[in-house]
Amino acid sequence: MLSLNNLQNVITNPVIPYVGTISEQLEPGTLIVIRGHVPGDSDRFQVDFQSGSSVKPRADVVFHFNPRFKRSNCIVCNTLKNEKWGREEITYDMPFTKEKSFEIVIMVLKDKFQVAVNGKHTLLYAHRISPEKIDTLGIYGAVNIHSVGFSFSSVSALPSFHRGGPSSVISGEMGDLRSSPAPTLELTEIRPENVQNAGMSQFPSNRGDTGKIVPRTVCTKSRDSTASLTLTCAKILPINSLSKTLPFVARLNSSMGPGRTVVIKGEVNAKAKSFNVDLISGKSKDIALHLNPRLNIKAFVRNSFLQESWGEEERNITCFPFSTGMYFEMIIYCDVKEFKVAVNGVHCLEYKHRFKELSNIDTLEIDGDIHLLEVRSW
């Protein structure tokens, strides 16, 4: 669960129906976290993000989120504009259960809302009215609400999902990425340009021609330093310093080892089939960790490419965390015996080290059917 300590304007045990003013604008990156319990006799409840609180005429509802338990269990989403409802969007994969508690996390993105329930991605809803119009939250129906909290975004970049509590990403080792001391980012992007000057061995041929690479010149952000070939900045790699084109290849200026973390933010393409994230030993060409979500078959494949051959795939996972069109934040944490991976604040898997020389892992490669937004490492 997301820690209440990291949320703002927390409302506890509101009386339902609840109608309250939202203190800040819901910019892209804002999170709304609602925790509650569904009574055994509930037939429906709804969460409405409104433009005003007028009853007559009724205020516009920018985003209407309406779980229904009568007849077929489903979630109905819609927009009310000028007192007229639009076309319903219905989700039949129902994450709510009567007499059970829930946590709803709604994230505001540039072009849509993204909703997860109990740590599982649930649905996307494209904006029909700009979220800038939202100034009121309404909660109605047969539901008990324990708390409502906000994490407002003050920057254009999308924020990290918070971690804390019993379902912490990696059992509490990392804490809140945004409130922790700013670490030094240690990545140098490398791009296909000049094979004669590259001086680097080629990665496995079945993974594409990534051998033709040279370091990309990147200026540091420090006012007191001059331009450098090594990217060094506080905490966040600016989005505009990423090429955003795939494959994306970056060298870890400090090698992998226990305690090292890599964070990748992106958006899955609308017609995505798969993508991959690889941690590589540039010297030996070995792929220590190959993460390969396959959306067409909903499999999260893990493997290693050692001594010019692939090992046995690992596919077991409780819940496939990706969906087409969704925003994601993937966190890869290197522990002593294994890698730990979380997606959108929820722990997904462990992968025991098959490649034992962790200090030789010095390269990150990302490719596939995603739009890359941000990469960080420390």
Automatic annotation (TrEMBL):
Extract the GO molecular function terms from the UniProt entry: carbohydrate binding
Q: Which Gene3D superfamilies match?
A: 2.60.120.200
Where along the sequence do coiled-coil regions lie?
none
The Galectin domain sits at 18-151, 248-378
Q: Which GO terms describe its biological process?
A: autophagy
Q: Which UniProt keywords apply?
A: Autophagy, Cytoplasm, Cytoplasmic vesicle, Lectin, Repeat
Q: What is its main location?
A: cytoplasm
State its location(s).
Cytoplasm, Cytosol; Cytoplasmic vesicle
Q: Which GO terms describe its cellular component?
A: cytoplasmic vesicle; cytosol
InterPro entries linked: ConA-like_dom_sf, Galectin-like, Galectin_CRD
Q: Which Pfam families does the annotation name? A: Gal-bind_lectin
Q: What does this protein do?
A: Beta-galactoside-binding lectin that acts as a sensor of membrane damage caused by infection and restricts the proliferation of infecting pathogens by targeting them for autophagy. Detects membrane rupture by binding beta-galactoside ligands located on the lumenal side of the endosome membrane; these ligands becoming exposed to the cytoplasm following rupture. Restricts infection by initiating autophagy via interaction with CALCOCO2/NDP52. Required to restrict infection of bacterial invasion such as S.typhimurium. Also required to restrict infection of Picornaviridae viruses.
Q: Which PANTHER family match?
A: GALECTIN, GALECTIN-8
Q: What name appears for this protein in its UniProt entry? A: Galectin
